[in-house]
Amino acid sequence: MRQQGLSSYKDAIFALASGAGRAAVAVVRLSGSGTGEAVRRLAGSLPAPRTASLKRLRHPDSGETLDRALVLWFPAPSSYTGEDCAELHLHGGPAVIAGVADALVAAGTRPAEPGEFTRRAFVHGKMDLTAAEGIADLIAAETAAQRRQALHQAEGALASLYEGWTRRLTGLLARQEAFIEFETEDLPSDLDAAVGRAAAALRAEMEAHLADGGRGERLREGLVAAILGAPNAGKSSLLNALVGRDAAIVSARAGTTRDVVEARLDLGGVPVTLADTAGLREASDEIEAEGVRRALLRAESADLRLLVFAADSPPDAETLALVAPGALVVANKTDLTPAPAAIGGVAPISVSVRTGAGLAALQEALAAVARDLARPEATAPITRGRHRAAVRDAAARLAELDGAGLPELRAECLRAASAALGRITGRVGVEAVLDAVFREFCIGK
């Protein structure tokens, strides 16, 4: 999206806010200073604020009737964007939507860019940047756990935390500045030391916030689970059984899987991408060798690993060393041979993909690991890399406080820490990140 400031938001925009395609109802949103005039030109008049009114919509040039629709009017500033807004609840046929879009352009509005409604809400002070990101995450949420996390953020949980820290920093800065400005006055002798102690306590809270194992980011983005093991262990069959469809080709011929095959599923509310990989063995050709290399790379980067082996062919020490530690060990084909009691000191999970035995227990074990990796320990977890970088920067500035000999330098440390937090919520220095944030949004939000 192009760079835009507050002065750029003078034109009226519109977008389809409901899903594309045929539907019973389609919702078109409008926002901007020309919204009221555009609605009048199509509907003849504006309804009472926040009251649905049935109107006949006509093209402003030809006068042709386009639809009979419900029209809602939200005058500024009591609207989502803080500007004059309206909604047209149309019949959901493509021809109706296209006709109304053409009429809105003729009435002086333009199609919105991705995220432009929410960006205008941010510019007009209706929400901070973390809330805007929470709305984007809420739209993209695949699981209940993602929905809950996104909703907490959209409702201000992160903003409340960071703004609370900012208020404390502002108070500390005021005390530090008082020490500088009124050094010769009768101030408490330990004022400077008290600021240092309070800053150290705040820094400890920030460091605890950072030491979360990336759970919020993992939940937002989803986990990756790599399925590893020797050829013909049943890895592809296991992937298909877990996702409930034929995502991977299954064959009795060893080495069928040459590349990484991925499929998505919901495990205990956590989105997980299962990655079926090439069998780990001495490759017979350069293509299989590349598949094995990719399998090992995926194992290295995966959040969790499943080592799958046929019950009658336990993995050797070399394979165990590649996959361990921390992998879930799965003994497949237990309908033919009982699983060994332990592999590398770990009791394997016994399954038979052919009969379905043990699959429910394996799914529960996977879900437990996924929940442990992704479940936030706080109601306001870090959900993005830019949050983490800013909090880390703020903590680093506070860490410099003790080494700053001059009161003026200590004040500058506090000021820099506050500015770092301000970048998260959008209070300061965010022009460079606005495009990246709002580019994630769909049209109409």
Automatic annotation (TrEMBL):
Entry's family note: Belongs to the TRAFAC class TrmE-Era-EngA-EngB-Septin-like GTPase superfamily. TrmE GTPase family.
Residues binding GTP, per UniProt: 232-237, 251-257, 276-279
Subcellular localization, as worded in the UniProt entry: Cytoplasm
Protein name (database record): tRNA modification GTPase MnmE
Keyword Electron transport: no
Pfam assignment, any one: MnmE_helical
Chain sites annotated for binding (6S)-5-formyl-5,6,7,8-tetrahydrofolate: R29, E87, K126, K445
Enzyme class at the top of the EC tree: hydrolase
Cofactor note: Binds 1 potassium ion per subunit.
PANTHER family associated with the record: TRNA MODIFICATION GTPASE GTPBP3, TRNA MODIFICATION GTPASE GTPBP3, MITOCHONDRIAL
Enzyme Commission no: 3.6.-.-
Job of this protein: Exhibits a very high intrinsic GTPase hydrolysis rate. Involved in the addition of a carboxymethylaminomethyl (cmnm) group at the wobble position (U34) of certain tRNAs, forming tRNA-cmnm(5)s(2)U34.
HAMAP family: GTPase_MnmE
Positions of the TrmE-type G domain: 222-371
PROSITE patterns xrefs: G_TRME
Cofactors that this protein relies on: K(+)
Binding positions for Mg(2+) per the UniProt entry: S236, T257
Domain of life: Bacteria
Record keywords: Cytoplasm, GTP-binding, Hydrolase, Magnesium, Metal-binding, Nucleotide-binding, Potassium, tRNA processing
Quaternary organization: Homodimer. Heterotetramer of two MnmE and two MnmG subunits.
